[in-house]
Amino acid sequence: MLIKKPDLIPSSEITPESVYLQRRHFMRGIGGLIAGGMTGLAHAVPAYPLDADLPQYPGPKWLQPKLRSSERHTGYSTSEEPAPYFNAITHNNFYEFGTAKKNPAKYAENFKTDPWKVEIAGAVNKPGVYNLEDVIKPHMLEERIYRLRCVEAWSMVIPWIGVPLASVLQAFEPTSKAKYVAFTTLLDPEQMPGQRSYFSTIRWPYVEGLRLDEAMHPLTLLAVGLYGNALPPQNGAPIRLVVPWKYGFKSIKSIVRISLEEEMPPTSWNLTAPNEYGFYANVNPEVDHPRWSQASERRLPSSLFDPNRIETTMFNGYAEEVASLYKGMDLTKWF
Ligand code: MTE
Question: Which of 111, 193, 273, 282 is the most buried (most CB within 10 A)?
Fold first, then answer.
């Protein structure tokens, strides 16, 4: 993303990587569990062998039984091995909690995510401010194992748990005026040190958007969990978007507002640097970012000696499912 001055968090407060690494245990069994689960019909999500010394997140009471009965969705997952839990919860972009990758795990630790309300607004028949519980409860939770490709050219495979965004939107009855969906993250400078930073390049709150057909695509997920548990605060608890064929910055975290719009809504990184970040932000190895190539990516976990660099694929490997959404569009112009 943008290179910027570090925010107000002193570097002395950031846990050194070596400390994390000492705690780290790879979850060797996870690949087998996932591969085994891919062949069956939908069934309860298996418990992931998570590192005992890393925090886990049970989530609010109403979510716990739903998480336990979430179903493994066979259609849209990948058999690639998920990143170790350690990487997923300690290598984050969540600028509200600092710009360094390890800042969110540290500074979002006490982020209050329950109770949580979500406003549904704009071109819908049932607008209102709803308890998150009432937005999620009517729907079956599914596990989706997706590749997440950041525009910074790193990637991870993450087992999410969530609800297709389409199911949630349909429940509020979009009207014929709805052409786009706009999302907003919580604005709370008291809890979010990044929103208090004088050096921030982002105008808060963080906002994102999708075209309605992208929002309604079956791959598009509203996630409430990962690795069998609720979302950790640093990953966007209690509810975030996951759009696996787009650069990670489209997958907005800690959503408080979803609005159906007639016009293309503004998006945070596009407002910050329009020549670098477009509205569509589809993963595309042929369209480089002005400051770096997008032809390949570092698949986490990776290290100096084993960078694990792989070729980036069109639409992050989801071309078969989504390429038709962009038929006839010049993707160098609509990047
Ligand atoms: N959402 C908000 N509100 N603020 C952010 O800074 N960062 C985005 C996205 N969602 C971000 C956000 C970026 S750049 C990425 S790559 C993903 O979150 C990272 O998700 P992860 O930390 O769960 O891997």
Answer: 282
